[in-house]
Design a protein that fits this description.
337 residues; alpha/beta; Nucleotidyltransferase, domain 5; eight-stranded mixed sheet; 12 helices; globular; RNaseH-like_sf; nuclease; 3'-5'-RNA exonuclease activity; exonuclease; Exonuclease domain-containing protein
């Protein structure tokens, strides 16, 4: 679908995979009668044990920041709610369940609001859209989250989120890997319920960026007036190419260039930041969700992008991969090495 710059309320219909996080949730097992090919996804039925940040504290910190972040609505009536991770992947079956809707958020825009006066400060950008990507998984990719931000209005546009099932591990190793990675967040069950192989994730992602007219399935085609933003070079310089080799896939053309937000941060503010948490602390942006849960990290990086745009930063490509040699060229003289 073509993207039109419309109001935030009308954009709610654009995203069928709006994202955030579900923290320490308790999940019912599958029904014993459900089939393997078409499982009935179970959902959390209680409050999470660690929601991290109430709306009241969010509002208080946001007021200290200035124009970028607005307090979510109804700050005095209820606490901040974690995101339903089944919903982020288009698999929530409880949208008519009042109890579930009261406990979990289904609207990522609640965590990425923009004040109109902040958007007025944004400088003209060379790109129209930023795709904030933050992969999880050191051995193989376990999570592929993307948050799409309008480069001119700073507004949240859409999101794509998939849990990724490793292809070169035994089932026992996968269980150990997931228990260690996602068990601490209480989302290991949703990972097991929804994870799909990396090749299928890329097919669905290509449908998503194609639907937004950001990419055409042609040999060597790059993104159309959009670019990935990552917090470091690891995601696209190292991990995606490694995963493509493991999954026996050719590296897609849309992964050939990206924006390392650390380099933009260094050149704009004239100070180094070792990572996302350092940037958020220095910019006095409160974190939302759990650090190292990919969709939450992508969301928090997107909030840094919003803030930098409001501060007047020009956000542009920092690295390119040459397909002929596979060498990466870094475009900024001053960069994080």
């Amino acid at each position: 679908m073509a993207l039109a710059r419309v109001s935030s309320s009308s954009r709610l219909s654009v995203s069928s995979f709006t994202t955030s996080s579900m923290l320490h949730s308790f999940l019912r097992p599958f029904s014993t009668s459900s089939s393997i090919s078409a499982p009935r996804f179970s959902h959390p039925r209680s409050f999470p044990t660690d929601v991290g940040l109430s709306q009241d504290s969010f509002a208080s910190t946001a007021r200290e920041e200035g124009d970028v972040i607005e307090a979510p609505r109804s700050t005095s009536r209820r606490p901040w709610k974690p995101m339903c991770l089944y919903y982020t992947q288009g698999k929530c079956t409880m949208m008519d369940d009042t109890f579930h809707l009261e406990k979990f958020n289904h609207n990522l825009m609640m965590d990425l609001p923009v004040n109109a006066s902040a958007a007025d400060k944004v400088k003209p950008q060379k790109l129209d859209y930023f795709l904030v990507l933050d992969l999880e998984g050191k051995v193989e990719i376990l999570e592929f989250p993307v948050v799409m931000i309008d480069a001119h209005s700073m507004e949240f546009v859409d999101s794509f989120h998939r849990f990724v099932r490793p292809t070169a591990m035994s089932e026992q190793r996968i269980r150990e890997y997931i228990d260690g990675k996602y068990g601490k967040f209480g989302v290991d069950r949703v990972w097991h319920d929804t994870a799909i192989p990396f090749g299928e994730v890329l097919q669905e992602f290509e449908d998503w960026i194609g639907g937004h007219e950001l990419w055409k399935q042609k040999q060597g085609e790059s993104l159309n007036s959009a670019a990935f933003i990552t917090c470091g070079n690891w995601d696209l310089k190292t991990k995606v190419p490694e995963q493509c080799k493991v999954s026996k896939l050719k590296l897609p053309s849309y992964f050939m260039e990206w924006i390392n937000l650390k380099d933009i941060y260094l050149n704009f503010y004239n100070r180094r930041a070792t990572g996302m948490m350092t940037m958020m602390r220095e910019l006095q942006i409160p974190t939302v969700g759990s650090h190292h849960l990919g969709i939450d990290d992508a969301k928090n990086i997107a909030r840094i992008v919003q803030r930098m745009l409001a501060d007047g930063a020009m956000i542009q490509i920092t690295a390119k991969r040459h397909s002929a040699t596979n060498d990466v060229e870094f475009l900024f003289k001053n960069r994080i090495r």
